Amino acid sequence: MYFNTKFNIRLLLCVAACTMCWTIALADSTDTNTAVKVNSSSYQDWADRTDISAKFQTNHKPIYSIETLQPIGHYDNNSKSVVFVQGKVSSHGGASQIANGYANHVTRNAGGIVYEYDFNQSTQSIGTTGSIGLGYRRLSKGEHSYVGINAFYDYAFKEHYKRASLGVEYVTGENELYANFYKSLGNGTSSYRIFKRDEMIPAPFNTPDINVSVGESHEKRVASGYDIGYARTFKNARYIRAYVDRYHWNRMNGEIRDLEWSNPDIYNYNIGFRVNGVYSNGIKTGINVNVTPHISVGMGYDKPFGHSGEFYVQTLYTLGKSKFALFGGKHSDDSMTTARSKMLDKIERQDMQGLNLNGDFRVHYPHDSLD
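Request: output the structure for the sequence above.
Response:
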């Protein structure tokens, strides 16, 4: 039941994204000198730039996503520049390190006993994410290269992580250079404290207490960082694209403490949990092959520095048709420059990285035994 519910939510989000982008594409296909006409070619243009993918990586959940790129306004083979929108919905758009700290103790004036103490840390999927971006690309005079700039906004629906990015790119011939700079959009924090009169003192005491302060704290952060990449296609095998990407995430350390940790009577116990959060540098390299006009397969290796690497495989289905393919498509094209043929290629970006800190502290205060 849980899997079906999650799948239905993702399906609805994907359909909504497709509907939005299809509407934009059909509207932009209108010629200003003629009446609006929806035909098979306008749908084909939209579908050629919309993909559904499944990615499988060692020690990770499968990632299912839908992604599309559509030009805004008029664009054809005579245009020197293009403004475009790119959107994506992903089932698992990143990873989050979860840290949980728990302590149940009394203040020093009440006897100085620590009843319970626990800390655990794990890595989990962020869950469903969505991203929307706006980009601009401009061809050189001879159309053998172009420069581009883009900005994106990312949002994780479950944990409410938010991130923005600014990217630049330079394409010349078969060579592609790009860089993305990611910035967290604030931390999410929440906390509360209440007093209970019927909180049980844990075993072996197992007696009720009438003056217990119960406090919870939650903090969520998103890692900032950058990635720099190089990719290359091949003149007589345009259905192949190889790439290497160098990424870096800033360190995010944290500490889980009681809400009243500055109280001298509590602080003397120094009950706190240090958390070593997100910090990662690494290289990702791989190759994508358009096997048919509809299906492409990608394989790669993700190697964080100081840790073992992981292999991944990705399959992608294009709703329309890719121009270049090993079977059933072109292997090369001399009708236009390589740079122009890449003007509507999708921008490659890194998934989100998050940190989630959760604290649960039960503090027993001294009170009159006759209460």
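The helical segments are 2-28, 40-48, 264-267, 338-341.
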